[in-house]
Amino acid sequence: MAVPARSVSFAKGLNKLSFVGVILLSLLIIITISLFLFYSAEFKKVNAIVASLKDQVLLLEKSEQKLILIKDKLGKINYVKSLPSSENNINQFKKLNEIVSLSSDSAFTEIDIGSVKTEVSLFSKDSTALSSVLSSFVEIKDYIKITLSSLGFSPLSGFSSSLIFESKQDI
Amino acid sequence: MNIKELNFLLKPLGIFIFIVLLFIGSCYYGLEQINLLKTKINVDKKSQKVLGTKLSILQNVENIIPSDISFIDIALPSRGIAIYAMNQVKNQANSLGLIISNLKTGAVTPDKDGISKVNISFEIEGDEQSVYNYLESFPELLPLMKIDKVSINSTDGIVRASVSVSAFSGELPKKIPSITTSVTDLTSDEVKVLNEISGYQKPQFVVINASNETPKEDPFN
């Protein structure tokens, strides 16, 4: 029995498709190999540049360590500098001290300077001296709050007062 | 369809399927290899960029940072903070003609992020201006110290102050980053702080040199 005509034409069609497929496959292989070779060359080139840069960076290892050490220390130094301290209050207290020094009838008997507040004990011979010193204190703009925490009077020694000066906090 | 027909179609169909499979396989494998290469190239190009920037920063480092950076280590020493601080406290008092007494130091306690502190307390005595000059000098001394509290009293023109100070130390970095990790240059604020700190007063230590004395006479011979 002979093979039917439709099978013969089907086989011929498959052969034609196979032929086209072989050409396309060949083209694909050529293109793939070309691209592979191109990217391989590109990779070798970039890899060589990176290797050269790594060698140069290695030569500067000491500089890198210096930079890392300095940046680390500077970060810590900035933190320490931001911590509260009494230095500001010490500077501000000098103004209070000048006021009291100018008055011959008043004197500090105790001074405690902290990072947040300054506490003083003040002796004043009479009410005029006391009010003069207090008025001068109020004119200093460095403090957000001045508290007269105690006031006493003795006919023999005069007025003794305790004051608390609270500073403006740095933002 | 009979067996003869099937046999006839088997060969061309087989060839066609084989070519199709080969085509798909080549596409898949070829594209995979090319993509792998492209990924490696991209990774290397990123490394190249990072390394290029890093190299330029490191080459510029020596122009910005002073050659002697011992002051930065003394600002926050990794060890011996109590010794540095006490030395500085005493030297400053002596230089201003103040009498220093009751110098005490506490234990080093951790603070934050590799920073530790130690409390030092002492008393100073002298004229009023010198005492205030002494207290005002602390912000520009190394190692970095903060005055926590000062109690001052004055008798007959002589001022006595009880001072409590915190001195700080800082751990050295524990890890050096890998060669391909980027570094950042010093910012203008960092350069400013660096220049500021370089002008602060370092503690002075007396170096004792070995003497060239002749050996002592042996009394037994």
Give a structural overview:
- Chain A is an alpha+beta fold and 171 residues long.
- Chain A has four helices and four strands; from the N terminus they run αααββαββ.
- Chain A has a four-stranded antiparallel beta sheet, covered by helices on one side.
- The mean pLDDT of chain A is 90.
- Chain B has 221 residues and is an alpha+beta fold.
- Chain B contains five helices and five strands.
- Chain B has helices spanning 3-64, 70-75, 81-95, 128-136, 188-198; strands spanning 99-105, 109-112, 115-127, 145-155, 158-170.
- In chain B, strands 1, 2, 3, 4 and 5 form a five-stranded antiparallel beta sheet that branches.
- Chain B is elongated and about 130 Å long.
- The mean pLDDT of chain B is 89.
- Strand 1 of chain A pairs antiparallel with strand 4 (145-155) of chain B, so a sheet runs across the interface.
Q: What is the H/E order of chain B?
A: HHHEEEHEEH
Q: What is the radius of gyration of chain A computed over CA atoms, rounded to a whole number of angstroms?
A: 45 Å
Summarize the biggest pleated sheet of chain A.
4 strands, antiparallel
**β-strand number of chain A:** 4
First-residue to last-residue Cα separation of chain A: 104 Å
Q: Which term fits the overall shape of chain A?
A: rod-shaped
Summed up, the helix count of chain A is: 4
Tell me the radius of gyration of chain B. 37 Å
Strand order of the largest sheet of chain A: 1-2-4-3
Low-confidence stretches of chain B: none
Fraction of residues in β-strands of chain B: 15-25%
- Overall pLDDT level of chain A: 90
Mean pLDDT of chain B: 89
SS elements, strand count of chain B: 5
The end-to-end span of chain B amounts to: 131 Å
* Broad shape of chain B: elongated
Structural class of the helices, strands and pairings of chain A?
Answer: alpha+beta
How many helical elements of chain B?
5
